[in-house]
Design a protein that fits this description.
This protein is of the alpha+beta class. It has 8 helices and 22 strands. A 6-stranded mixed beta sheet has the order 5-6-7-3-8-9, with helices on both faces. Strands 13, 15, 16, 17, 19 and 20 form a 6-stranded mixed beta sheet that branches. Strands 10, 11, 12, 14 and 18 form a 5-stranded antiparallel beta sheet that branches.
Length: 428
């Protein structure tokens, strides 16, 4: 049987530093001619063809079988989203041979095509048409889309009055109800609140079980594990390994460097990229730098970096994840505080007996006033030793250990009127 998607020898090149690229329009040609005398006076009028090649994808080959749900994982900048954009025909490959069987639909940017002045009802028809749904298909799915988005009372209200949560719920609901043979999904399960994310994950599960072919890109490793039978791991634009989902995820998690040194190789994105530099991330217990931590003792995460300019208000942040699930976020100041130009060190003190044994990953970033930010996912890993906790496996279940107090009261004896009251207290 022929595969639903067949990719052979896929390469994608981008040209960087094209300050002196040839004019592509009449306006650019005229503007270049007007600037030339000034460049000659400044001594910059000589021809410069220097540019830098950047290969976003390099010699990628894989198949996706009919009805298969294939996960695509990798760090930021590995080439995952570029792959989906090429398969969706949003951007063209430099060279490749790609075959896709059946109708293909992409869930790459939820909300694309929404008009703020139109109502939710009107945007469902507009966005559905943009995504390739016929009018009859939209009519049949309309009530289901509205119910899924939970906007029944506001369906005839202009979407400019929607909250951000309502907006993304409606956008995802329209995209998720497409009837397609091949579905490309890129991090759409990260939209909305926690309850809606669980709902979205359930919807993707229904799609996966419905026999449709799905290519699913996500940093949520638990979602990849639950939805996919096979996975591909990308690194630096290359497909490094492909196979059973548990094996690929294990290789990916072991590729994270331990939190004990430089993070210079980590990839960051966001408006503040290049204005904040993160250099080192280390963990300490009892004042000693460690790679494997004892979960029964408190520890400290130290983040070192450099601000290339001063900021009036800035928060530095670390995020803790396990299997792609966001456990918690910590900030180095109770509220935004000034960050001066130059080197900085932020220390985060974490309590004992909260995190279970196992491997966690760290993301780090910065958030400035006005909403500007930079963020890097999967920057380092934290390993908590199993040997340090001498408890049964069922008592180590779960992601975190929440401090609690318990109290048991029971009647001793066979008669309600006889016996004493036994009280057992458990403090944790």
């Amino acid at each position: 049987m022929k595969p639903a998607i067949k990719v052979e020898c896929l390469w994608k090149e981008y040209q960087l530093n094209l300050t002196h690229r040839p004019p592509g329009t009449l306006y650019e040609l005229l503007a270049s001619g007007l600037r030339m005398p000034v460049r000659k006076l400044q001594g910059t009028g000589k021809k410069v063809n220097a540019h830098e090649q950047f290969w976003a994808l390099r010699d990628v080959n894989f198949d996706v079988q009919l009805g298969e749900v294939l996960g695509v994982i990798g760090r930021n900048g590995a080439g995952k989203s570029t792959l989906l954009k090429i398969l969706s025909r949003i951007t063209a490959p430099t060279k490749s041979r790609i075959e896709v069987r059946g109708r293909l639909t992409s869930l790459l940017e939820v909300g694309t095509g929404f008009h703020p002045e139109l109502s939710g009802r009107e945007n469902i028809f507009l966005n559905g048409a943009i995504l390739g749904m016929s009018r009859g298909e939209i009519v049949r799915k309309f009530d289901e889309i509205v119910a899924f988005a939970e906007i029944d009372k506001f369906v005839d209200t202009p979407v400019k009055r929607y909250s951000s949560g309502m907006y993304v719920r409606l956008a995802f609901a329209v995209a998720a109800h497409l009837e397609a043979d091949v579905l490309l999904v890129d991090e759409v399960l990260a939209v909305g609140d926690t309850s809606f994310q669980r709902k979205s994950l359930g919807k993707m599960g229904e799609v996966a079980k419905g026999g449709r072919t799905v290519l699913f890109v996500s940093h949520n490793l638990s979602a990849i594990r639950s939805l996919c039978s096979r996975a591909l791991l990308f690194e630096g634009g290359q497909l490094t390994v492909g196979g059973a989902v548990d094996e690929v995820l294990d290789i990916y998690e072991r590729s994270f460097s331990s939190a004990g040194g430089s993070v210079a190789s980590a990839r960051f994105h966001g408006p503040l990229e290049g204005q904040i530099r993160f250099d080192n991330l280390v963990c300490r217990q009892a004042g000693v730098v460690v790679n494997v931590l004892d979960p029964s003792r408190d520890f400290e995460i130290e983040l070192c970096g450099f601000a290339l300019r001063p900021f009036t208000r800035m928060e530095l942040k670390i995020g803790l994840f396990r299997d792609g699930l966001h456990i918690t976020s910590c900030y180095d100041t109770p509220e935004e505080a000034p960050l001066h130009e130059g080197q900085f060190i932020s220390r985060f003190h974490m309590p004992a007996n909260v995190l279970r044994p196992g491997r966690y990953t760290l993301g780090i970033g910065a958030l400035a006033s006005g909403g500007s930010w930079t963020w890097g996912s999967d920057v380092a890993a934290l390993d908590f030793s199993e040997n340090a906790v001498r408890r049964s496996a069922d008592r180590n279940a779960g992601v975190v250990a929440i401090p609690y107090t318990a109290r048991r009261i029971q009647q001793c004896g066979t008669s309600e009127k006889s016996g004493s009251i036994a009280v057992v207290e458990h403090l944790k």
